[in-house]
Design goal:
273 residues; Aspartate Aminotransferase, domain 1; four-stranded antiparallel β-sheet; 8 helices; 38% helix; binds pyridoxal-5'-phosphate
Length: 273
């Protein structure tokens, strides 16, 4: 999909849009990209040579853009009708981030293949590829490599899974996510910014102008490390174990950062020409 980010291997880079560096042009052949959340564009692009459709349920690097329910359901239906594989990149959305083990569950779809990483290791390098039914064609151990199946990292991953599977964990993620969303909405109202979008504990605040870099710098002055995936978007994806107190502290610092930014803009405006 347009604005997709699927990772840094050559294949994953080729599936991303745009290719993140000129040195990796032209990438591998055989990847077509279509606008996200546009079912008609997808239908028009798919033909008899299409083997798979890959997308993020919520586009992370693009600025936390959720697939609409209608879109993801439509993609699944198209895949089933034409015998195409549905691949969901859940590297960013999986393992509790969206308030469920996988984001696909919150949409009520079932992918043939799912990629996992990031949260799976809870901070240590660990990634996985899940495949269901006939899409599962690799034998255990077939894709071995020096660091594949690393026992230490897998132990960390199992500890993560034990934690997120504890009763009430996903509900807590949803509850804290609502708390974060409400706080962000209050701030966007007060400082005249755009929409707040996301799910679980993955949120974006859309800024009215390309001021994300300035906001990140102002936040740093307040001891807050912010992440800006786009020039007009800041992203919030705290540890899944974050407390409401942590969130309130973050919101307070973010409010101060906004105040700094506004004071600076005010000063600019009042400066004589
Ligand atoms: C981080 C990420 C990846 C993986 O990136 P690598 O740098 O290759 O580990 C893949 N897909 C999404 C959606 C990501 O956010």
């Amino acid at each position: 999909a347009s604005q997709a980010c699927h990772g840094r291997s050559l294949g994953a880079l080729s599936a991303s849009d745009p290719l993140p560096c000129i040195r990796c042009e032209p990438g591998l052949p055989g990847f077509s990209k279509v606008p996200f959340n546009d079912l008609a564009a997808l239908h028009a692009e798919v033909d008899s040579r299409t083997v798979a459709i890959m997308l993020e349920p919520i586009q992370g690097e693009a600025g936390v853009i959720p697939a609409t329910q209608e879109y993801l359901k439509g993609v699944e239906t198209l895949c089933r009708e034409l015998g195409i594989l549905l691949i969901l990149d859940e590297v960013q959305t999986g393992i509790g981030r969206c308030g469920a083990m996988l984001a696909e569950q919150t949409y009520g779809v079932r992918a043939d293949i799912i990629t996992l990483g990031k949260g799976l290791g809870g901070g240590v390098p660990l990634a996985a590829l899940l495949a269901r039914g006939t899409a599962c064609c690799a034998e255990p151990g077939e894709l071995e490599g020096s660091h594949h199946g690393n026992a230490l990292m897998c132990a960390a991953g199992l500890a993560v899974l034990d934690t997120v599977l504890e009763p009430g964990f996903f509900e807590q993620v949803q509850d804290n996510g609502r708390h974060l969303r409400e706080g962000l909405c209050r701030l966007t109202g007060r400082y005249g910014q755009g929409e707040v979008r996301g799910q679980g504990l993955l949120w974006a605040l859309q800024l009215k102008e390309n001021l994300a870099r300035e906001l990140v710098a102002a936040a740093l002055h307040e001891g807050l490390l912010l992440n800006a995936p786009q020039a007009d978007v800041v992203r919030f994806s705290p540890a899944l174990t974050v407390s409401k107190g942590n969130i309130d502290e973050m919101l307070l610092r973010l409010a101060r950062a906004f105040a700094r930014l506004h004071a600076r803009q005010q000063a600019h405006r009042e400066m004589p020409a």
